[in-house]
Give the backbone structure.
Amino acid sequence: MTTDTQASEQTDGFHLVIDALKLNDIDTIFALPGIPITDFLRISQAEGMKVISFRHEQHAGNAAAAAGFITGKPGICFTVSAPGFLNGLTALANATTNCFPMILVSGSSEREIVDLQQGDYEEMDQLAIAKPLCKAAFRVLHAEDIGVGIARAIRAAVSGRPGGVYLDLPAKLFAQGMDKEAGKRSLIKVVDPAPKQIPAPDAVQRAVDLLKSAKKPLVILGKGAAYAQADAEIRNFIEKSGIPYLPMSMAKGLLPDNHNQSASAARSYVLAEADVVMLVGARLNWLLSHGKGKTWGAEGSKSAGKQQFIQVDISPTEADSNVAIAAPVIGDIGSCISAFNQAMGAGWSKPPSDWTGAIAERKDKNLTKMAETLAKNPPVMNFHSALNVIRNTVKENPKAYLVNEGANALDFTRSIVDMYEPRRRLDVGTWGIMGIGMGFAVAAAVVTGEQVIAVEGDSAFGFSGMEVETICRYNLPVCIVVMNNNGIYKGTDVNPRGDAMAPTQFVKNARYDLMMEAFGGVGVTAKNPEELKKALDEAVASRKPTLINAMIDESAGTESGRITSLNPAAAKKK
Ligand code: ADP
Ligand code: TZD
Ligand code: MG
């Protein structure tokens, strides 16, 4: 007589994790193999998952984070224990800081040995280390809990304010056997992982009344507004209200940058002059000078301006974090903006024309000045003449993703290259972190299939440059443009002792294009806008992995780009 258990078909931890992810419509894993996840990745691929294997975990993690931002589903990154986990941790922390949903899953060593600190292979108490750097952290010890563990991780990543989640899977778990049917029943399909959060009607009314009373209203759209995928509601609100708006960096393209209500070209004027400012998925952090000081028209650097703020955000604790918020509206942006659109009613009067007129005047002046600068063709290519080419390419290819990092290479690109579609600009975000470039580029290409153009400072590129092999291996439509000015900020720094190069300098005229050729991609050095345009056109037409080494005037940048003032100054010499 055979018992039921002998006859039952078995599954194991490997398959349960894969089945749980698939059940929740997750089809892509960004990873770097090794003990204990090598077989997991092999089986995942065999079971039909897209497995993208990287050269360093930080870039796999960054790819997961960008995938999360683009799709609104948690991006998944798998790493090995201790060092692999730590390499992925920067990406997890960065995702949390930027409110991108991702799940870092790391294999871990044997609990009994780790907890007694007996020196296991890659021993580390990963759960404890991850906790302060992410939104939530979980560990699964038994195969029958895999379904719950993954469901909790998904909910934590995407509900409320999105962020990074850590999931610890000890090596032993993968091999644990379980009855197949019972295993199937233990999995959870997460229903409504990011539930709508409807704002309170009185909070919406308070905000609409304040907006109505404004003589100089302004809307600031942040990357939360882009993430929310409420594009039509937001556009409707902006156009119906007639209020000028400023997009934060990653909200560029939510409405096309050439929209006549965009106040980007009059940014300093509108921030200092506005009387009511409505923040939509944007925090009053350092990127907005904490809502204080000269930027906001205040007298002292620590004092608040005369603006009153409306803040639309999903996080109830965000309001008042820097200055008083007169009208907080808590909810998901789609629900909030749709409530605004209703509460505004039919008889909404647009902002006074002396406000919109004054903005238009400044915009015209600045845009004319910019057009003149862009039209110049200096003998040595500089940021402007190079970016003018990229600006036109993006205009011709509005669906392309633009990845951007560096200092000057970042600041000039942000202000020169207009975006036309939502969520197409991926950059250094809230931390101003270098190293997101290739991870974000791979994610955008893998998840959307669209062309990616990565505009990279030569220093910035160095942080993830080895992933050009990954880009070639998967034959991704990624064109990297390295803005090569021979260094960090510029290539002209001088070591007063003269015995070595200065800390911000790199090898002069380095051939980054050859790195791409090493793996079978297309490498081009461009010394002028014509060469750059030709190479960029060919890259976009062929969709081949391409690296354009754009030689930029090495004296063209400024220290730290636009944030020179954040550098601590040395005490003055007597
Ligand atoms: P930016 O850097 O573009 O100014 P931030 O990252 O500072 O943007 O702010 C994003 C804000 O958006 C965060 O406060 C976050 O809580 C909020 N947010 C993210 N997703 C949503 C959403 N779906 N609905 C409402 N608010 C959201
Ligand atoms: N390390 C990390 C992880 N993030 C950072 N932001 C920095 C270091 C400091 N840093 C910046 O803030 S920008 C930058 C560094 C090293 C590079 C600037 O040089 P670049 O750009 O070549 O990328 P430009 O065009 O020369 O200014
Ligand atoms: Mg540089």
Observations:
- Residues 98-99, 161-162, 222-224, 227-228, 248, 250-251, 281-283, 285, 287, 313-315, 318, 332-333, 430 surround adenosine-5'-diphosphate (ligand 1) (CB under 6 Å).
- The chain is about 40% helix and 15% strand.
- The radius of gyration is 25 Å.
- The chain has a mean pLDDT of 96.
